[in-house]
UniProtKB/TrEMBL annotation, chain A:
Protein name according to UniProt: FAD-binding FR-type domain-containing protein
Comp. bias regions, Polar residues: 288-317
SUPFAM superfamilies reported for this sequence: Ferredoxin reductase-like, C-terminal NADP-linked domain (SSF52343), Riboflavin synthase domain-like (SSF63380)
CDD domains linked: FNR_like
Disordered, as annotated region: 288-360
Biased composition (Low complexity): 318-340
InterPro entries (UniProt xref): Cbr1-like_FAD-bd_dom, FAD-bd_FR_type, FNR_nucleotide-bd, MRET, OxRdtase_FAD/NAD-bd, Riboflavin_synthase-like_b-brl
């Protein structure tokens, strides 16, 4: 597999636990193009804690000529170490891989079902379709623990404004967030919910499913119930034990063959198989313990899930026909995605909403 | 059309705004503004150890590959540095630290018994190497960048790009630096309060500007200030002296076409004093200013008075 040397352009949190890495497209003429929805491998040669290469879905549009973006859930030791990366650091990119891709001609009406971090390939597809001004009808059902946990939410707002053909429905486990008028639904994705937003001819659409294994199984069962032929259901498994992870999770066997010969390779093979079995068990355990639908990275090692950060809900937005005095001081913060002062904001006075220039 | 208002806390100050627009779209817009500001803070805050700016400041004498956003703000800073003859300079960071402004202002203890601010020998933006093609920045040893002088204006100008596809009738304030456009819910020009520098919770005048988009910014020495070892200090450091500005100006309010310019020009006038500052303002295009002096005099640029009503 050919790898391309490039560098990290940006690293930023786009939700409480999702880090977005932006990697420069290499100037090399042979640097590949990708299809929306594909994934690539990344490795970071200068970092001891980031040994080996891992595969991540590409979240940017193929039309973005400057960077490839990757949305990565901070989950275990490896992904935690990704937070140490700084712009300018060298990155090796391999790929792209995968057949989980949107076809503008075949998929005239597409339904995207995303669980947690399984949203990333859909971000690429939706960005691409919007950039290309395609008229394909796209409906995204995005299952997340809470809206504050939902990466790319602001991107979807912008994309919905740009495209009349895109509809995004958030399905959250957070009961407090229920707001059907804003297409925010508390609960789980089920057949009734899909039918309510798709209205007609459920069987004529193309369905794309991406998320953790329990989510995938549940969605496949629901879509199967609509009578959709199998060729119109595309799936991408996210999580430990997925094909992508096993293929690219560790370069150790190749090194062993080259360095120590066949005998050493046999020993190593045993070690690797044991390690895979251990990770697989850990993954199963994590999935069993998971209280609700929540995606993992394609490849995160099976370490403990960090506790969820406390995030503040967006402040209430008042609605007045003209400026008026309000005692309803807003609390800080956006969707808790990025580092921010944690103390609640107390206005020095119950100020009316009027423009006022003052010393800053 | 109703006015949708929002207020929250970020960048060490209050962010607030009003938008005459469809409620659902305005609420989405407010959400987007919050996220953009948080993203901006993560890139450019001097007080966040994980920010890109902190990384740059921690690595002097090295060509650091930075994000396109960092290159963009560095180029904006260079333009402002040139327009203001070096009076607004992001390399002021070391002087701010020496003046005691080493943490976000709300965390400062103003009477900690530390010695009074000492003059710091420092460099200027001319010594910072910005390579647009390679996306690299190299700062010299002993230099700390701080975008406090232009940051709010810069991000305000960026946020306009999100607001104006939705509505032309709005105002948005980042800690008192604001952009105003169109009319309010009663179809009047937005009335803009001008802060009294000696009674900070009161307004001293009201500005009424024509309907097209304007940016307004105020800089003054009576807000972020303290006493160290018996010496008064405030956060507006004159890059030419490395010391807090000491002249007859209490506050300057500027009206300009862009928030970046308004933010920077308010400081430029303040550093020059009322007489020279207003003369300088009169030589600039699309710039009006009001200076309030320590003897409570009001000094105007040529056209400012017609926009003002004193309270």
């Amino acid at each position: 597999m050919k790898r391309y040397k490039t560098y990290l352009v940006n690293s930023r949190f786009i939700s409480a636990r999702v880090l977005e890495l932006s990697v420069a497209r290499s100037n090399s003429r042979s640097f590949p193009d990708f299809l929306p929805g594909q994934y690539a491998t990344l490795s970071f040669p200068l970092h001891q804690k980031l040994r080996g290469e891992r595969s991540f879905s590409i979240a940017s549009s193929p039309t973005d000529s400057s960077v490839w973006r990757f949305g990565i859930k901070i989950f275990g030791r490896y992904t935690s170490a990704l937070q140490d990366l700084r712009p300018g650091e060298p990155v090796m990119v391999g790929g792209p891989f995968g057949k989980f891709s949107f076809d503008q001609f075949k998929d005239q009406s597409a339904v995207f079902l995303a669980g947690g971090i399984g949203i990333t390939p859909f971000v690429s597809m939706i960005r691409w379709a919007t950039n290309k001004k395609l008229s394909n009808d796209l409906t995204l059902f995005y299952s997340v623990r809470s809206l504050a946990d939902a990466p790319y939410r602001e991107d979807f707002y912008a994309l919905e404004m740009l495209s009349p053909h895109l509809k995004v429905i958030y399905v959250t486990s957070d009961l407090a967030g229920n707001d059907p008028s804003a297409r925010i639904i508390s609960g789980r994705i089920n057949a009734d919910l899909i039918a309510r937003f798709l209205l007609k001819k459920l069987e004529d659409k193309s369905y794309f499913i991406c998320g953790p294994l329990p989510f995938m199984k549940a969605m496949e069962k629901i879509i199967g119930g609509f009578g959709v032929p199998k060729q119109f259901i595309k799936t991408e498994k996210f999580g430990i034990g997925s094909k992508a992870f096993i293929e690219t999770g560790s370069p150790m066997p190749k090194i062993a063959f080259a360095a120590w010969g066949l005998a050493a390779a046999v020993v190593f093979g045993v070690v690797v198989r044991m390690e895979q079995a251990r990770r697989s068990n850990a993954a199963t355990q994590n999935l069993v313990n998971s209280p609700s639908i929540e995606a993992t990275n394609n490849n995160a090692p099976g370490s403990a899930v960090p506790s969820m950060n406390n995030v503040n809900q967006a402040a209430p937005i008042t609605n007045t026909s003209q400026p008026s005095v309000s005692n309803n001081n807003s609390q800080n913060q956006s969707s808790g995605t990025i580092t921010q002062p944690s103390q609640p904001f107390q206005s020095p006075r119950a100020a009316p909403f009027v423009p006022r220039t003052r010393m800053s | 059309m109703k006015t949708i208002n929002d207020r929250f806390y970020a960048l060490g100050t209050t962010i607030e705004g009003g938008f005459r627009a469809d409620q659902v779209l305005a609420e989405k817009l407010c959400e987007k503004i919050r996220l953009r500001i948080a993203e901006f803070e993560n890139h450019f805050s001097r007080f966040l150890p994980t920010s890109e700016l902190s990384y740059l400041n921690a690595n002097p004498n090295r060509e650091i590959t930075v994000s396109p956003q960092m290159i963009e703000i560095m180029l904006a800073a260079r333009k402002i540095w040139s327009l203001t003859d070096g009076l607004v300079d992001p390399t002021i960071g070391q002087s701010l630290i020496a003046a005691g402004y080493d943490v976000s202002f709300e965390l400062l203890n103003n009477s900690d018994g530390q010695p009074a601010p000492a003059r710091v020998v420092r460099r200027t933006l001319r010594d910072v190497k910005i390579d647009e093609k390679l996306n690299t920045v190299k700062i010299p040893e002993g230099t700390t960048l701080d975008f406090g002088g232009i940051g709010k204006g810069y991000i305000l100008d960026q946020l306009i790009n999100y607001i104006e596809p939705l509505t032309q009738d709005y105002w948005l304030s980042l800690g008192g630096d604001l952009v105003v456009s169109g009319r309010d819910g009663t179809n009047q020009h937005w009335p803009i309060g001008v802060q009294n520098p000696q009674a900070l919770d009161q307004d001293i005048a009201e500005l009424k500007l024509p309907s097209d988009r304007w940016a307004v910014a105020t800089s003054g020495i009576t807000h972020r200030r303290g006493v160290k070892a018996g010496v008064n200090w405030h956060h507006l450091i004159n890059p030419r002296t490395g010391q807090p500005a000491m002249n007859d100006v209490l506050s300057v309010t500027v009206v300009a076409k862009s928030a970046l310019l308004a933010d920077a020009f308010a400081k430029t006038i303040l550093f020059q004093g009322s007489k020279d500052g207003i003369e300088w303002a009169n030589r600039q295009k699309d710039l009006e200013a009001l200076v309030i002096t320590d003897t409570q005099e009001f000094v105007f640029s040529d056209n400012m008075k017609k926009y003002l009503k004193f309270l």
